[in-house]
Amino acid sequence: MTNTNKLLAAVAAGVAIGSILGVLFAPDSGEHTRKKIADGTKKFSDDLLDKINEGKDRLSSVRNNMLNKVDSLKEKVEEYTS
């Protein structure tokens, strides 16, 4: 895991823990608190899925770029050896 990924994971964990603690110590009714927790969890889940999809897209892009470079190198080798 790279340092950037570790930092993002730590920030996400901190936000989640802070949100949960903030909601739990707020002077709201149980029903309202449970709704806040559910809403916060849904938002966190949606944000996490967005980041995962973003990562997949980046990986796909890197893969495609690498394949294009490999194809280009193959063509150059073929030209050189012909």
Write the layout of secondary structure elements.
Blueprint: H1 3-25, H2 30-81
Helix pairs in contact: 1-2
Q: Keyphrases for this structure?
A:
82 residues; 91% helix; 2 helices; rod-shaped; mainly alpha
Order of helices and strands: HH
Contiguous helical run count: 2
Number of strand segments? 0
Shape: rod-shaped
**Could you tell me the mean pLDDT?**
85
Helix residue percentage: over 70%
Sheet with most strands? none
Structural class: mainly alpha
Cα radius of gyration in angstroms: 23 Å
| N-to-C span | 44 Å
Report strand %: under 5%
Poorly predicted parts: none
Describe the model.
There is one protein chain. The chain is mostly helical and 82 residues long. The chain is 91% helix and 0% strand. The chain has two helices and no strands. The protein has helices at 3-25, 30-81. The longest helix has 52 residues, at 30-81. It is rod-shaped. It starts with a helix and ends with a helix.
Quick overview of this protein structure:
The protein has 82 residues and is mainly alpha-helical. The chain is 91% helix and 0% strand.
